[in-house]
Design a protein that fits this description.
It is built from twelve helices and 15 strands. By secondary structure, it is of the alpha/beta class. It has two domains: 125 residues, Aspartate Aminotransferase, domain 1 (Alpha-Beta Complex); 232 residues, Aspartate Aminotransferase, domain 2, CATH 3.40.640. Strands 4-10-9-8-7-5-6 form a seven-stranded mixed β-sheet, sandwiched between helices. A four-stranded mixed β-sheet has the order 1-2-3-13. Strands 11-12-15-14 form a four-stranded antiparallel β-sheet, with helices on one face. Helix 3 runs parallel beside helix 9 and helix 7 packs parallel to helix 8. The protein is globular, with a radius of gyration of 22 Å. The structure holds pyridoxal-5'-phosphate.
């Protein structure tokens, strides 16, 4: 599994030494039947947990009815999904694609058209340090991570980068440049380390965008679909963006992305200006509609807020005064534990505790568990994560050999 030398897959991921055959709720099972508690949901994808019965049933029914027919024809399920998403987010129209990076690509193209329509020849989009917007070339150029960009130059231009959370720096751009047309921002930076800006940040961006005719574009690919405790994390700031991108949890594992737009932005992309063969096909739309239904029926946005507080409470109790822990942050079930030092071995050590977690931005332990956890599962998750973190924080006794990284076997 981790033996890349014998794999036929390009080694674009450093894979952990475990593979899963089956999932049920918050649990994943390996080939030996050993079960792991999922604190990551396939990176914020499986908000409803694994193999939710309602989704399995809807997908099977749709597979027997119609998988795909092309955007050359009407797709009633896409119309219904677009209307539902717009209702929940305050947007007017949706464009469907197959991933997060494609949703951002659509937003970037939309912003450039918006700029050209206003007579800006080389439109610029404001982006932030530490941002993650995806891996296609334009989304990669918008991403604030030099390591992810290295070796892929020349990258598309048209992005101006400022520190995350710094509305003053954006105001300075507004005062000094005439070619800015949009701001692209994650309401909470996910890959950047669960970085939560001050409450005034998004409202300040909204005011700047309004004052200068820019589009406020929120990348809610990781933060959206109820995970933050609201449908969109930007709703915590009491603002409505002009453009919202969604993917990850939208299909609970069935690939689908969406670029939603309001007002003039919703009228920017006309016939022939953008497209996707698979985007918004009946299977993906049926999946997303079922996800929306389930989030509402199980009241999972409110539940995410409660669960986030519960798990963060355990983490605070364990690590409040620990010198190895810098800060514990959470907004709903976007949870980050910032360590004082990098912890590259932590995800592997956590396997020994039979829990899945992730380390991002080198030293931020990231938890993105399913929104469907029971209270008991949330407590169990917190305790397994705490034991895993304690394992990497524990000072090595003088003279003792460093603890071997545990493998999968106990
Ligand atoms: C995951 C992610 C993306 C990219 O989505 P893909 O589906 O992997 O292309 C973009 N933006 C944010 C904030 C993300 O978390």
């Amino acid at each position: 599994m981790s033996d890349t030398a014998h794999s036929s897959l390009m080694p674009t991921y450093r894979r952990l030494p475990v593979a899963f055959e089956r999932g049920e709720g918050a649990w994943l099972f390996d080939a030996a039947g050993e079960r792991y508690l999922d604190g990551l949901s396939g990176i914020a994808v499986c908000g409803l947990g694994h193999a939710p019965p309602a989704l399995a049933q809807a997908l099977a029914a749709q597979a027997r009815t119609l998988l795909h027919c092309s955007n050359l024809y009407g797709i009633p399920l896409a119309e219904t999904l677009a209307a539902r998403l717009c209702e929940l987010t305050g947007m007017r129209r949706a464009f469907f694609c197959n991933s997060g990076t494609e949703a951002n690509e659509a937003a970037i193209k939309l912003a450039r058209r918006h700029g050209h329509a206003r007579g800006v020849a080389e439109p610029q989009i404001v982006v932030f340090e530490g941002a993650f917007h995806g891996r296609t070339l334009a989304a990669l150029a918008a991403t604030g991570n030099a390591a992810a960009q290295a070796g892929f130059e020349p990258l598309p231009t048209g992005f101006l980068r400022v520190p995350f959370g710094d509305a003053e720096a954006v105001a300075t751009l507004a005062a000094t440049r005439q070619d800015v047309v949009a701001v692209l921002v994650e309401p909470v930076q996910g890959e950047g380390g669960i970085r939560i800006p001050d409450a005034g940040f998004l409202p300040a961006l909204r005011r700047l965008c309004d004052a200068h005719g820019w589009l406020l574009m929120c990348d809610e690919i990781q933060t959206g679909m109820g995970r933050s405790g609201r449908w969109l994390a930007s709703q915590h700031g009491g603002i409505v963006p002009d453009v919202v991108t969604l993917a990850k949890a939208l299909g609970n594992g069935v690939p689908i992305g969406a670029c939603l737009a309001a007002g003039a932005a919703a009228e920017t992309l006309g016939p022939g200006s953008h497209g996707s063969t698979f985007g918004g096909n009946p299977l993906a739309c049926r999946a997303a509609l079922t996800v929306l239904e389930q989030i509402e029926a199980q009241e999972l946005t409110a539940r995410a807020a409660v669960l986030g507080g519960r798990i963060a409470g355990h983490l605070h109790a364990a690590f409040a005064d620990h010198p190895g822990v810098v800060e514990i942050r959470h907004l709903g079930l976007l949870i980050g534990v910032e360590l004082a030092h990098p912890a590259p071995s932590l995800p592997t050590r956590a396997l020994a505790e039979r829990v899945l977690l992730n380390v991002t931005a080198e030293r931020v332990v990231r938890l993105l568990p399913p929104l469907t956890l029971t209270d008991a599962e949330a407590d169990e998750l917190a305790h397994r994560v705490i034991r895993s973190i304690e394992g990497v924080l524990a000072p090595t006794a003088a003279g003792a050999a460093p603890t071997a990284v545990p493998g999968v076997a106990r």
